[in-house]
Amino acid sequence: MPMLKDPSTKYKPFPPINLPDRQWPNKTITKAPRWLSTDLRDGNQSLVDPMDGDQKFRYFQKLVEIGYKEIEVSFPSASQIDFDFTRRLIETPGVVPDDVAIQVLSQCREDLIIRTCEAVQGAKKAIIHLYLATSPCFRNIVFGMTEEQSIELAVKSTKLVRSLTKDHPDRQDTHWGYEFSPETFSDSNMEFVIRICEAVKEAWGPSEENPIIFNLPATVEVATPNVYADQVEYFCRNISERDKICVSLHPHNDRGCATAAAELAQMGGADRVEGCLFGNGERTGNVDLVTLALNLYTQGIHPKVDFSDINSVIELVEDCCKIPVHPRAPYGGQLVVCAFSGSHQDAIKKGFNARKQAGTPDDQDWVMPYLPLDPQDIGRTYEAVIRVNSQSGKGGASWVVEQALGLSLPRGLQIAFSKIVQKEAEARGCELKAPELKQLFENAYHINTPSRINLLDYEFSTDRSSSPVPGMERSSINTRRTFSGVIAIDGREHKIHGSGNGPISSLAHALRSLGIDLDVKDYKEHAIGKGRETKAVSYIECEVGGQQQTVWGVGIHEDTAQASLIALLGAASTVISSRPATPRVAPANNDTLAPVSDAVKVSINGLETAASKLGL
Length: 616
Ligand SMILES: CC(=O)SCCNC(=O)CCNC(=O)[C@H](O)C(C)(C)COP(=O)(O)OP(=O)(O)OC[C@H]1O[C@@H](n2cnc3c(N)ncnc32)[C@H](O)[C@@H]1OP(=O)(O)O
Ligand SMILES: CC(C)C(=O)C(=O)O
Prior knowledge:
The protein is α/β, with parallel strands linked by helices. The chain has 18 helices and 14 strands. α7 links the parallel β5 (175-183) and β6 (212-218).
């Protein structure tokens, strides 16, 4: 049947509770709640293939490592595997730390309760957890019980637990806790929930030192999260002896609001939250403990659980549950610390640069466009933050080059390189990974890859008396330099000479004799590395004589001057590669090289201006 034209005939809106003086909207969360991980129970019971004992064991160890102090480990009466696993935890020395309580779940059925209490015998700290549904839907359909019958069963079952645990003469070495869940709390009448919990409380006899846990599950999420917060606040305000009670939350995610529900309900007065890593659990899952914890963290509140190595947590959860963590899961998803789109990348890159320039230490003042959490804090690397595809701009590709090669590309080169990247990304129709981008850059600018033009040998001579080259004005720093050297083009050697104000201009002049006419428009350099490993990188933008086209050259060398010569030859290499035919160059050892193309008159004014400023 298709969707109804009028769904109100079939579905009724959830009636909100009457709480006009609700307090929670004015509250904020200022501390971490008590956490309970129910991965090994609610999470496990919802898997296609439940975990085996070894998987549960590894999972348990990880939960302890993360810092969970209350862990629901099983439904021991459900299967031998669960029973045996619970025994294994208790009987293997050192596995359950003294400050960790293991919790086990049972229905309100005598035989199951007996088996459940047996399963945790000898534990240092154990919590027995019983549930009984309170909503009219469940009471009528599933149990066929009146409210009074339900209270009677809950009380009888609680007394049985009591006799098998804290009142049992042979079981005094265990610190016993008790949790009762009015299942489907979110869909129950609040007055009835209070009545059944009062009766259970009396049967258990809690103290301020050892409070009873009333877990208020949104077994099925049926309303907006503010309604759940109202229900929880109502419960907290109306249950007696509040200081002998720990109010726990157990939100499911049927409407996709479990995180909001857990947060608002904490504002409503709850003390404890039950959930699973990455929101595993029945149907749409339990509330995601990772999200809740890191939401606190990004508000400056330590969650008392540690996700410094989130990748290892993801690996374990995926391995044991056989369910992948969604790539867009908050904090944990592979794509949530990545930006593909140009404007995001640009903003993030500027954000990181601003941090670097301000010298902000890693543990201070995170103010970053698009990234609510420093990926480093959860063991992610910055390299993974910016990824490049056809939606990316210059910022993304240049960020990757900076991370890979330590090169801080000038804006013009960023633009030039991004065109190369865009073309490649469109042609390939997929993401270009960092190593591919690095290779693309190295190929385009002849770094660590063979160049068609190589400098084999050279020297400079200085002539203070001579007049400047035509078109250049003489000035105090316009001392004329002459480049004499040997370059190889496609393996063939050529002796060339040229004069100019500095090394770059004299080499540019010399290249003219090979028909390569470059006019330097922009020049930048910076150091890469530190100490003995320091190198210089030069970036040169050249206009190709007489044409509108510009090319960039990049040179890296220990010696600054040589880096700039390599950069210029890199640009020259690009020029000859872009020509339709190999240039006609004179044979080796020929000092008087004939021009090899019709291209262009030499113009080195721009070169002289840019380079002479740097004394080159
Ligand atoms: C919201 C939750 O996640 S609650 C936890 C749910 N987890 C699980 O159920 C996983 C483990 N469960 C199991 O392995 C089995 O269901 C067992 C061992 C507990 C019980 O198995 P069975 O005896 O075969 O019963 P079955 O699985 O059909 O459960 C339904 C019965 O339990 C009763 N029941 C359900 N919940 C409860 C409860 N909280 N207290 C008492 N009885 C209950 C039902 O009314 C029904 O009884 P009926 O057979 O008289 O009609
Ligand atoms: C047993 C209870 C707490 C439960 O899992 C639920 O209501 O979802």
